[in-house]
């Protein structure tokens, strides 16, 4: 599945995630869960990185 980082960010915002901007990455929080996300909105995200972010936030089955 090919997803841009901007599309992932919109999806996560719709799921209720909040974002905290760091120096090089963005911290994504959903309740007590958190994950780091790269900050290049137009670039595609690697499939392993996408799976890891969703797993860390507890959204893998959705």
List keywords for this structure.
single chain; 62 residues; alpha+beta; Metal Transport, Frataxin, Chain A; 3-stranded antiparallel sheet; 32% helix; 26% strand
Write structural notes for this entry.
The protein is of the alpha+beta class and 62 residues long. It has one domain (5-56): 2-Layer Sandwich (Metal Transport, Frataxin, Chain A), CATH 3.30.920. It is 32% helix and 26% strand. The protein contains two helices and three strands, in the order H-E-E-E-H. It has a three-stranded antiparallel sheet.
User: How many strands, which pairing sense, and closed or not: the largest β-sheet?
Assistant: 3 strands, antiparallel
| Helical percentage | 25-40%
Count structural domains.
1
Total beta strand runs: 3
Q: State Rg.
A: 11 Å
Distance between the first and last residues' Cα: 15 Å
Q: Order of strands across the biggest sheet? A: 1-2-3
Question: How would the blueprint of this fold be written?
Answer:
Blueprint: H1 5-14, E1 18-21, E2 25-30, E3 33-38, H2 47-56
Antiparallel strand pairs: 1-2, 2-3
